[in-house]
Amino acid sequence: MSPSEPEPSNIALILGQLLQRVSPAERALLIALAERLAADRYRGWACEVGDPARASLLLACAEREEEIARRVQALHPDAATIQRDILARNPDLEDINRSIFAGRPLDQQFALQAQGERLGAATWRSFAGREEDMRARDTFLGCASLEEENAGCLEALLGGGG
To answer: Of 114, 33, 115, nearest to 68 (Cα)?
Structure first.
């Protein structure tokens, strides 16, 4: 791998380290916070690309990220309180998130995000596989599908499609 290519293992390592900071019961809500940060990133990219068709695709990705966050938060009646507590205990989350993408060309950022989306899909499937509550299981599987849709969109943009 050349120094200019994104390193997918770094995203997995960073996510793993972040998940270790919270209890197992809080992990889905931590990821939901990251989904909202990703939505913000997609909206920023939509402003940067300079092409209305590409911008529209990126805005659709942002909406899928928001939908994932909403679905996961709906599983927890006290989601907002728990997430505020997670952020209070981990004030560096936004900086860590930003640092993954900082200083990279847009195509590299898309590639990194696509890898993150694939990792997210695998993570939601893992959560679903351990979940006894069918509503939560179905929610997590739906989130995995939304992540894969975003990954496919980014990969198409990188390949010149879309």
So the answer is: 33
- pTM for the model stands at 0.90
50 three-state secondary structure: coil
Handedness of CA 102, 107, 112, 116 (dihedral sign): positive
User: Do residues 71 and 141 make contact, with C-beta atoms less than 8 angstroms apart?
Assistant: no
Q: List phi, psi (to 5°) of 68.
A: -60, -50
7 touches 1 (CB < 8 A):
yes
Give the helix ranges, DSSP H, for 75-133: 79-89, 93-101, 106-130
SS3 53: helix
Instruction: Provide mean pLDDT across the span 116-140.
Output: 97
Residue-wise pLDDT tens digits, 69-80: 999 999 999 999
Tell me how far apart the alpha carbons of residues 108 and 111 are, in angstroms, rounded to a whole number: 5
